[in-house]
Request: fold
Amino acid sequence: MFGTYRYVLALMVACGHIQFQLFGRPNWLGLYAVFGFYTLSGYLMTRVLHETYGYTAHGFLHYITNRALRILPPYWLALLWTIALLMILPDAAGQAAWLVHLPTTVIGYARNFALVGMHMDFHPALVPTAWSLHVEVIFYLMMGIGLSASSRRAAVWLGASAAWTVWAVASGIPFGDRYSNVLGASLPFSTGAVLYFLRNGHRRWMLLAPIAFVPHALAAPWIWPDVQLAGFYVSYLLAAVSVLALVPLRASPRWRALDRRLGDLSYPIFLLHTQVSFLVAKLWPHYSSLLALFVLTLPVLHVFAVLVHWCAVSSVENLRDRVRSASVASQEGR
Reply:
């Protein structure tokens, strides 16, 4: 069920960026979804490290190789697509041109392609969501070298992350610094790591969390006096419980196939939604509202997502399987 969950999170991010207001209030869907992604990543990376790669030098090499093969080809294809779009339609980004425009230096292109130093304030970001990938890569490395190697380490990591978060809130640290930097993101990643060791603690009532996750994000501006504090961290808790709720679910073969396909689309959607909305806005400039733009963008976005998956993911899947199999064989041979 994690494929469907990732797909929903990706659509939330797309909606938050394209339709940045809901009924006259800021749309928090995307912001809440990012911590959902981080929590799920913390769980999944801890799981594959323990069950597939291990914490040896060879295991780490196989793990990082597979992560690079998973992240970089679709990202590079999205990058090239954005460059082509901006070369053909230089003004496509419109009011977002301050963020998405062609770099003027070789270093600018190099940083975009390498994902090095792509923090939220780096401009231009040819893939606007690259900053969160930069954060993900940092935690992939930290978990790979042992941060989630045991339940005790994961618990200490979570405790330190929670302590920093409490200090940041008490000290009046701006929301952006609690959300977009590595220290802020440590909370959901460490939570996901701890959830791996608690994965057998599923209870039926926990299914309410994934059911409530999207409605809560939609309603947060109306039900919380501070969506950046109470609303945000309630959403983070819902994301954490959602992971535990979805771990044991077993679907029919037909639903598992759909779940896998939806999961395959989630990453390309995450990478391309903003740029595709630029294209749609140029092709249909008389859209009546941001909601209309979002609705118009969705079918075009799915076409591009399928193409990116087919070109950049399917082409390296056999190689990823070989890397994974080599790691499993190495673990079994020890």
